[in-house]
Specification:
Blueprint: H1 2-22, H2 44-48, H3 59-72, E1 76-83, E2 89-95, H4 98-102, H5 104-114, E3 130-136, H6 144-158, H7 162-170, E4 171-176, H8 181-193, H9 234-246, E5 250-257, E6 263-265, H10 279-299, H11 317-320, E7 327-334, E8 340-343, E9 346-349, H12 350-370, H13 372-392, E10 395-401, H14 406-418, E11 424-426, E12 430-431, E13 436-437, E14 442-446, H15 452-459, H16 478-482, E15 486-490, E16 499-502, E17 513-514, E18 521-524, H17 531-540, E19 546-548, E20 552-554, E21 559-560, E22 565-568, H18 576-590, E23 594-597, E24 602-604, E25 612-614, E26 620-624, H19 630-643, E27 648-652, E28 666-669, H20 679-690, E29 694-698, H21 700-707, E30 714-716, H22 727-736, E31 742-748, E32 762-767, E33 772-774, E34 785-794, H23 801-805, E35 811-816, E36 819-824, H24 838-847
Parallel strand pairs: 3-4, 3-5, 5-7, 17-23, 26-27, 26-28, 28-29, 29-36
Antiparallel strand pairs: 1-2, 2-4, 6-7, 8-9, 10-14, 10-15, 11-14, 11-16, 12-13, 18-22, 18-23, 19-22, 19-25, 20-21, 20-24, 30-33, 31-32, 31-34, 35-36
Helix pairs in contact: 3-6, 6-12, 7-12, 10-12, 17-18
Length: 859
């Protein structure tokens, strides 16, 4: 009887909690006790029409509330600092005392002086406020962060009393309400449109299972939290510019994690801290963490720290500011993924998640204010010791540049400039044992700059690590990613007379016509990054273009390598005026040179030669949804849409059985799971492929293509067996055998169409999987790019992996009757920033028909 009463009471309590979780909660649930609020400042519910957490805030309402606060309160200034792909504003709210807001420009100017060793000694730190940046919901479906921003802004703009006034006097609070507006809007629309009046906390309810690709990513399905360093997306570039404008002392990145967890705050795993981060950084992090623990103890929330996450990859928000003179922290809140969800820890509600994020934000600001001088001193010392460390280094500068690819060289210099790093055009040629760097085509980066540590991280090639586990990637060398030759310079070969004009956007390469007289044909070289965009511009305008499959040498000695685009005139492209208009567009838009040839008579390969192969305009179908990796598909979409300017059809996998494939000539199968595709559809693809079309598969798609006999290869695993290990060690050993994002070297056969556009026979390949194709076939027809025997360039390689990888193909190309199948065992467009292997994709799209598998001219 006693047990039954206890059961009944427990059941009633759970029902009450459940009802409460789906009903309105007031702001008093979130806000600290004992604080009075200015009644002239509207609380969030007065603007929204509902209590925070009752619905998921949409981006327009989020922006609207901050605009209202800026109208009502003298403590806040609200700015737009950029726009997303979908045109939504990227905004920042600057909150401080009324006096500080009036003098914001002067405060910002002095604060920036702290980060400059040339001026920092003149700054009286005791008079300066500390700067805290709160970054919310960079993953749009981790919405408790953005919703908590409403409360944080209200608390500091409306709160009264000496405690809050003193904090605001000592602190500049920068609130980025959401760093991913497009993803947040996508997710809020999904969740709100599936909310039930009665509520449903079942994890299998549609409310908790957003449709593909979900709200985590931005418009092009990029993970913006991996893009802080890489700045491939506008949200990231605008944010980094604003961050460097302010140089905050503390940045907190508010996230969510699995529903069955609790709450994590920094620091992460102590053994996995990037070695370029000073120890004092972690000391300050622990001081913040001590106050977080007190704050969560006070409200009865469970938490953990110093495990699972790490501070290694600097391209994530929780580590990015660590390399920019600040202290970066991570919040990870268990996600309700809707309004309430049953978990192993009981009922998790959206308001509870919001309260945890708000509590952590307030604790951060309070600690920053209390330890203001420590954080300002740390920032000052970070930059002054950077110069000291640079002076001690045996390296004095880095040099980079490519004569054949001016566009990517410029892109790298532009990238450095966005990150506050100066690079300079070299004034004279420099020849080293490995490279020839040409004046006007190369830049030098002196190390004696305040961003010394960031420079080192961008250029470093680290292969030794204190730990074999990584939360994210282990390498990210940017020059390797761009396939731009680079070297470090010591005191002997770096002199002041090498350093010319500092980088400027005006140095962007400009194209022009080369050669005079009437044109028998035009030639565009294939080695520039934007050559594929130029080719598609020609093809969409119905200009006939041919690719040179053998080198051309003119009677005057000019040479055009394999892959050069030839636009024959005369009876082939008879409308000379129209062709000229298209070529002028290419010169202007792509910055490419166009070469005029006055005759078809050459020293090597006349222009009527059958080695010049006609190119078809690509009509591309990219598989999406239903098991396809949104990141893989999105990176492809972004590449074609924004750089190559090629339209693609994004087809849901489930529609493949009904689509007319013959409206397309390229089918791209991104990384993903394709087991749901039936046998009838597979045979349909094979029939289409057999007629002369091309299938391109990436990563796990290669395994699916092999299983279904589009290709016939074998795969190997590099993982050695774990012997004589206990339970815990076995788990760690298994994790340490993963490839965490590592750079390996490959050898290229430059005569193969898949390698057109590469001027050197070595290239850096990014690999973050253990897919290795094994083959005894040494034929360069199908395997023209292989990993070298000592291939590790940068990052962590599991024991035995490099040996197994040696000699294996980077990609393979196979005939399928009249068609072609090209499979990539790695992502040639990793996170959209591995520009150096994008040309493989372009070659597969444009030149697959030029690949011959026998000496016969007819395939």
């Amino acid at each position: 009887m006693k047990n039954s009463k206890l059961f009944l009471c427990t059941t009633i309590l759970m029902l009450l909690l459940s009802v409460m979780s789906f009903s309105q909660v007031t702001k008093e649930y979130y806000l600290p006790e004992g604080i009075s609020y200015n009644s002239d400042i509207p609380a969030p519910e007065e603007f929204l029409g509902y209590s925070v957490g009752e619905w998921h805030v949409s981006h327009d309402l989020l922006v609207g509330y901050f605009k209202l606060l800026a109208e009502k309160s003298p403590r806040i200034k609200y700015e737009t600092y950029g726009k997303t792909h979908e045109g939504r504003p990227l905004t920042i709210a600057i909150i401080s005392s009324e006096e500080n807001i009036k003098n914001l420009d002067a405060i910002k100017k002095i604060h920036k002086q702290i980060t400059d060793p040339a001026t920092s000694s003149s700054v009286d730190l005791a008079t300066q406020p500390v700067v805290v940046w709160l970054s919310h919901s960079i993953h749009g479906n981790e919405a408790s962060g953005a919703n908590s921003a409403l409360l944080t802004a209200y608390y500091y703009t409306a709160g009264t009393g000496k405690e809050i006034e003193d904090i605001l006097k000592n602190t500049i609070i920068l609130i980025d309400p959401t760093t991913n507006p497009d993803g947040l809007q996508r997710f809020s629309t999904w969740v709100n449109s599936h909310k039930s009046y009665q509520g449903n906390s079942d994890p299998l309810s549609r409310e908790h299972l957003e449709t593909w690709p979900g709200g985590r990513s931005n418009h092009y399905w990029f993970d913006l939290n991996r893009d802080w360093l890489l700045i491939e997306q506008p949200e990231s570039e605008y944010r980094v510019k604003k961050l460097l404008e302010w140089k905050p002392n503390i940045l907190v990145d508010l996230h969510e994690m699995g529903s069955n967890s609790t709450f994590h705050f920094s620091p992460g795993e102590p053994k996995r801290v990037n070695p370029l981060i000073p120890e004092e950084n972690q000391t300050l992090t622990k001081k913040l963490a001590a106050d977080y623990a007190k704050a969560y103890d006070e409200i009865g929330s469970f938490y953990f720290s110093s495990e699972q996450f790490d501070d290694y990859y600097i391209g994530r928000g929780p580590t990015f500011m660590d390399m920019n003179g600040g202290v970066a922290l991570l919040f990870e809140q268990a996600s309700s993924r809707g309004f309430a969800q049953n978990t192993v820890n009981g009922l998790l509600t959206f308001p509870f998640a919001i309260r945890n994020q708000f509590t952590g934000s307030v604790s951060t600001v309070n600690t920053a204010s209390r330890l203001r001088n420590e954080f300002l001193t740390y920032q000052k010392n970070y930059y002054s010791t950077a110069i000291t460390d640079a002076k001690k280094s045996s390296k004095k500068a880095y040099i980079f540049g490519s004569v054949t690819d001016r566009s990517t060289t410029f892109r790298l210099a532009h990238f450095l400039s966005i990150h506050g790093i100066n690079s300079y055009l070299i004034k004279k040629d420099l020849t080293t044992s490995k490279n020839i760097f040409k004046a006007t085509c190369a830049y030098v980066v002196p190390l004696e700059q305040p961003q010394f540590r960031l420079i080192e991280s961008i250029f470093e090639t680290r292969t030794a690590f204190s730990d074999s586990l990584f939360y994210d990637v282990s390498a990210w060398n940017i020059p390797m990613a761009y396939n731009v030759p680079f070297e470090s310079l010591d005191v002997k070969n770096f002199t002041t007379d090498l350093q010319g004009e500092v980088f400027s956007p005006s140095q962007q390469p400009a194209g022009s016509y080369i050669g005079a007289g009437s044109a028998y044909a035009y030639v565009i070289k294939w080695d520039d990054y934007y050559a594929p965009a130029a080719l598609y511009t020609l093809l969409k305008n119905n200009v006939i273009v041919k690719v040179a499959t053998s080198p051309i040498e003119t009677l005057t000695g000019d040479k055009y390598e394999r892959g050069s685009l030839v636009i024959p005139m005369g009876n082939i492209n008879s409308d000379a005026g129209r062709v000229e208009e298209v070529l002028k567009e290419i010169i202007t838009e792509n910055g490419l040179n166009v070469y005029r040839l006055n005759t078809g008579d050459n020293e090597k390969i006349d222009l009527g030669s059958p080695t010049l192969v006609s190119i078809d305009a690509p009509k591309i179908l990219v598989m999406t949804e239903d098991g396809v990796s949104g990141f893989s598909a999105g990176q492809l979409w972004h590449l074609f849409d924004t750089r190559y300017k090629i339209p693609v059809t994004l087809l849901p996998q489930r529609l493949l059985s009904s689509v007319n494939l013959f409206n397309y000539n390229i089918l791209i199968v991104p990384d993903g799971n394709y087991q749901a595709i039936g046998e009838r559809t597979i045979e349909k693809i094979k029939a289409w492929l057999s007629s002369g079309n091309t299938v391109i598969g990436l990563e796990r798609a290669a395994i699916w293509l092999n299983k279904n006999k589009f290709i016939s290869v074998e795969f190997s695993s590099a993982a050695p067996a774990s012997i004589n290990l206990n339970y815990e060690s076995t788990l760690i050993s298994a994790a340490s055998r993963e490839v965490p994002g590592t750079v390996f070297e490959a050898f290229l056969d430059l005569t193969h169409p898949m390698n057109y556009g590469y001027s050197k026979d070595r290239v850096a390949i990014y690999k973050d999987n253990d897919i290795i194709q094994t083959t005894d076939d040494q034929s360069p027809l199908s395997f023209p790019a292989r990993f070298t025997s000592a291939s590790l360039l940068s990052g962590y390689s599991p024991r035995g992996f490099e040996k197994t990888l040696a000699g294996s193909p980077v990609y393979s190309a196979f005939p399928f009757r009249q068609g072609r199948v090209v499979v990539f065992y790695n992502n040639p467009n990793f996170r959209g920033y591995w520009w150096g292997t994008n040309k493989f994709l372009a070659n597969a799209i444009f030149f697959s028909k030029a690949i011959r598998f026998s000496s016969s001219r007819i395939q």
